[in-house]
Amino acid sequence: MRVFIGIPLSLKTKDKIGEILDYFKQRIDQKINWVKVDNLHITLKFIGNIETYNLTKIDQSLNKIKQQLNKEKYYSKFIDLIPAVNPKIIYLKIDNDNIPKIMALIDKYLNNSMPNTNYLPHITLGRIKDKINKTNINILKKYPVDISETFDCFILYKSTLTPQGPIYQPLKIYKL
User: Are 126 and 59 in contact (CB under 8 A)?
Assistant: First the structure.
């Protein structure tokens, strides 16, 4: 089972990002797999493939983390691409002083028993299939973004890859 930890977005924020995606779809003429609006979320930690018996351990860890958190406001002010050379991902950078602390708690409580990858808090907008040209990079980076929202939970998601795109299924919601 492939799993990750993320923060869900409100319908209002998803609609706002949906407008951004529509704008780009009309102006960028390259092969980009845009994320479906229903799949938008803030990625906290991609755990990867696990055996079902590990879910109990992960759940216990996430319950401990939940007890140490409060509702938080986050912001997104710009779009960026990663990696810097030959980018493959278009994303909204998330600003919140406590999200890196939350990510560190996740690493601590999962005891590094899961793949240890440093993730930047973000909302993935699209995956670039071909080399992107500078004109399209400028269109992306110059788009004015002003998103803010308070999150009051995080979710352990199951991710199933299909030819039509990923399907994300909440396994458990952790209310703050």
Answer: no
pLDDT surpassing 90 at residue 171 = yes
Summarised one tens digit per residue, pLDDT across range 47-62 is 889 998 889 999 999 9
pTM summary value: 0.88
C-alpha of 103 from chain center: 12
Candidate list 9, 41, 44, 58, residue with the active-site label: 41
Walk me through the domains of the chain, giving residue ranges and CATH numbers. 2-175 (3.90.1140.10)
**Residue 122 is a catalytic residue:** yes
Closest CA to 90 of 119, 128, 136: 128
Helix/strand/coil (H/E/C) assignment for every residue in 143-157? CCCCEEEEECEEEEE
> How many Cα atoms are found within 13 Å in the side-chain-facing hemisphere of 107?
12
Catalytic residue among 47, 122, 125, 157: 122
